[in-house]
Amino acid sequence: MAPIVRIENLTKHYATGFQALKGVSLDIEEGEILALLGPNGAGKTTMISIVCGIVTPSGGRVTVAGHDVVKDFRRTREIIGLVPQELTLDAFETVSNTVAFSRGLHGKKPDPALIEQILRELSLWDKKDTMLRHLSGGMRRRVLIAKALSYEPKVLFLDEPTAGVDVTLRKEMWQLVERLRATGVTIILTTHYIEEAEEIADRIGVINKGEILLVEDKAALMKKLGRKQLTVELAEPLSAVPEALSGFRLQLGNGGQSLVYDYDTAGERTGITGLLAAMAEQGLRLKDVSTEQSSLEDIFVELVGAEK
């Protein structure tokens, strides 16, 4: 099956000479949740804006469900939903009118039952007659999502959807994303909250300086690039790592009360057995042993840091 979104060698140059995208290529499969991570200025929003028909590319091609986003603009806009970063709403309009208008703007017939369902799912039903200027920032962000869902898109872009909202709303949004995916909607999420990607994404993409560094299945990425750390708590503190243990590249931690050992989970041998045997030979008494898996944030920082 062809990907629902295909991005091929996409470039974007601005009049200032800044190149926001440098030959980006990316396939997004129907029904998946793809999290796109990258620092500020990495090119995330530019890429999304081109796919959604807001920004014109300098080069390359983008298709959505087989339709070119430039040549078949009207058709692709019927398929794509966008929740932008900016809270751009008519302050003097009500919640329900704003959402219903968005549906009509995309050529859909009125469907009050659907609008009610969306507002209820987003905990906005009791605010349906409230003017937008009276809503909190978190509530206005919910309205942006409701607007995008009102015309039943097949592909939904969420550009920093939980920026500036509280933890409770963030978790509610994650649940909503899961429900949307269950109905077959393809979701592309950009976020600064790496725990969001770790929680809900099927695949992780990392972009930096206008280039895609990798796109990988989340579990495979964690297995391939993840590291584990063994921490050995000592019964008596050390002032330095014994010379006999130097081959293990240990670090002293907690004021000499622990030895920290990094190892590769994908390696043939972890070296832990040899380390513990060597420690016993040195007469070191162990108080406790624990392991910790590197997080997606650790991997992200390592990838982006390597590009600097």
TrEMBL record:
State whether keyword Ubl conjugation applies.
no
Q: Outline the extent of the ABC transporter domain.
A: 5-234
Q: Which UniProt keywords apply?
A: ATP-binding, Nucleotide-binding, Transport
Tell me one Pfam family matched here. Answer: ABC_tran
> GO molecular function terms here?
ATP binding; ATP hydrolysis activity
The UniProt family comment states:
Belongs to the ABC transporter superfamily.
What is this protein identified as? ABC-2 type transport system ATP-binding protein
